[in-house]
Amino acid sequence: MLDIYFNDETGKVTEDITRLVEEVLNHAAGMEGLSDNPEVSVTFMTDEEIRKINAEYRGKDKATDVISFALEEMTEGEVAIIQGDDMPVVLGDILISVETAASQAAEYGHDERREIGFLALHGFLHLLGYDHMTEEDEMKMFGRQKEILTSFGLER
Questions:
Q1: Do residues 16 and 115 touch, judged by C-beta distance below 8 A?
Q2: What is the full DSSP assignment across 53-71?
Q3: 117: which residues sit within 8 A by CB, 6+ positions away?
Q4: Which of 68, 72, 116, 149 is 20 to 30 A off residue 110, Cα-Cα?
Q5: In 10 A of CB 138, how many CB atoms?
Q6: 3-state DSSP call for residue 40?
Q7: Looking at the DSSP assignment, which residues form a beta bridge with residue 97?
């Protein structure tokens, strides 16, 4: 089971949504064979806040739906974190724009719960090392994503 820390910067996310995200991520963690109660944080934010982060860290000055920061990922000049035996495994952070999720849900014809659950899973898979930079990686990630969503019952 995951230790999930939620932060709602919008003040608009319901307990129903946080419970769904918790259940989806724990389901995915089980399917991925994770153990030892790894930690992850999920922050719900506005388009403006995620736009700032997207500009600073990804060089894209526009809002996006989800951004993940894996703790294990290192960039140039960073020092590796050496984890002690008594320290929990921290996977990283998932940032979700509630506004973009709402507009995408309307565009795709499903409810916001489904969209936020999907985005949380997508971000979580990035924390686990999945990516979609190449066609082969995209097929692997999106296939796994669909498999987890289907087994959880959160399909389109």
A1: no
A2: HHHHHHS--S--SEEEEET
A3: 20, 21, 24, 149, 152, 154
A4: 68
A5: 13
A6: strand
A7: 45
pLDDT tens, residue by residue, 112-147 = 999 999 999 999 999 999 999 999 999 999 999 999
Domains observed in the chain: 3-75+87-152 (3.40.390.30)
Backbone angles phi, psi at 128, to 5 degrees: -85, 0
Pick the closest to residue 131 from 110, 145, 115, 120 (CA basis).
145
In degrees, rounded to 5, the angle at the alpha carbon of residue 40 between the alpha carbons of residues 97 and 94 is: 20
Amino acid residing at 61: D
Q: Closest by alpha carbon to 66, among 11, 23, 25?
A: 25
pLDDT of residue 72: 63
Q: How far is CA 113 from the centre of its chain?
A: 14
